Amino acid sequence: MSFKSRFRAPVSPLRRSFDQPSHRPTVAAMLRRDQPAEPVHCLRPQVVERAAVAFRAAFPGETMYAVKCNPEPAVLRALWKGGIRAFDVASMGEIRLIRTMFPQAAMHFMHPVKPRAAIRAAYQEFGIRTFALDHPDELAKIREERGGAGDLTLVVRIAVPKGGAAYDLSGKFGAAFRPAVDLLVAARAVAARVGVTFHVGSQCLDPQAYVRAIELASKVALRAGVRLDVLDVGGGFPVAYPDQVPPPVDVFGRTIGEAVARWFPDGVELHAEPGRALVAGGASVVVQVDLVRDGMLFVNDGIYGALSDAGVPAFRFPVRLMRASEAAPAPFGLFGPTCDSADRMNGPFWLPADVREGDYVEIGQLGAYGGALRTAFNGFDRARMVEVRDPPLLETPGYADAAVAA
């Protein structure tokens, strides 16, 4: 074979194999030569690199990638090639991975609630100095585990109103206004630098959501009488899906820049934590049809594999049948391979009406969380991974024309 594929343990996506992969062919060539019986994750590093370049050009501050979104080493290498030098980490596993791959990278521990052992190791062993928090007890933990040093950057996560994002993230983390004020005052007393962060929700299509959150952050700082050193606008930056076309990435960057200039006229160090926006287009998953019944395709991957977002969250992903067909398109739902009736993805996913058992279907925009959320439920724990040169199945406005190194 003129290409290589490799098996992985998908329930342990933070692999420790950092060898440079060889070039892979197209998805179609891979299928012709290999006829895989397991799902195949098709990585597109060039797409990830291009997205990193585009986002960095559009965002008027430091871009730090949210590792949880896709920790695959090939993806991380593409982000590094695209200029990403800072990472939002949330666990010791992510910290060790980034330090092993990129010894000079900046890491920010942005999980608001951390085990004491993780705080201590992050500070003492890995040199991390930026920590997020949203509760006084977390501040006490950080103070006690830092060993008395005064070189911390403490970033208070504030709660923002529920918006129109696909995933609302307002229910778990974030201090309300008055507690946030008190927490910022307390952090200022013990930290070299302080900041505020928030998260407007995942797949946020409205740039004004960031404006409203920035205004709220400024009011928290004003009430606390604290000048912020850092403003972290979090993640949530969107990509295109079949039923969602977001504004171009430069609109988000320009809108955020204008809001920061208005509400922080004295200046502030600006950060963002994109995940989906950088990597969604950088991978697809090829599944095989096992049965066709009453408008439903039984396929060999599902919500316990790469397609979690297609289940209850009801994301619709771009799809293509991997053979020629002249049949008219028809709407299909998908059943995954497990025995759980909840392993269902209603879509609709539009494919030629003559799709049949044995066909391969490529499902795009799965670089975000498609690999990271895989499980071994019901024994369906095998997946292949290859790198391909195909363009993404769907382009997101503002990313396609970014210039990358040859």
Task: Write structural notes for this entry.
By secondary structure, this protein is α/β, with parallel strands linked by helices. The protein folds into 2 domains: 6-44 and 280-387, Lyase, Ornithine Decarboxylase, Chain A, domain 1; 45-279, Alanine racemase (TIM Barrel). The protein is 27% helix and 21% strand. It has 10 helices and 17 strands. The chain has helices spanning 27-34, 45-58, 73-81, 92-101, 116-124, 136-145, 177-190, 208-224, 249-263, 276-279; strands at 6-8, 40-43, 62-66, 86-89, 106-109, 130-133, 153-157, 193-197, 230-232, 269-272, 283-293, 296-299, 319-321, 329-335, 344-352, 360-363, 383-387. Strands 1, 2, 11, 12, 13, 14, 15, 16 and 17 form a 9-stranded mixed beta sheet that branches. The protein has an 8-stranded parallel beta barrel with strand order 3-4-5-6-7-8-9-10, surrounded by 4 helices. The longest helix is centred in the middle third of the chain and has 17 residues, at 208-224. The chain is elongated and about 65 Å long. The model is unreliable at 1-22 (pLDDT under 50).
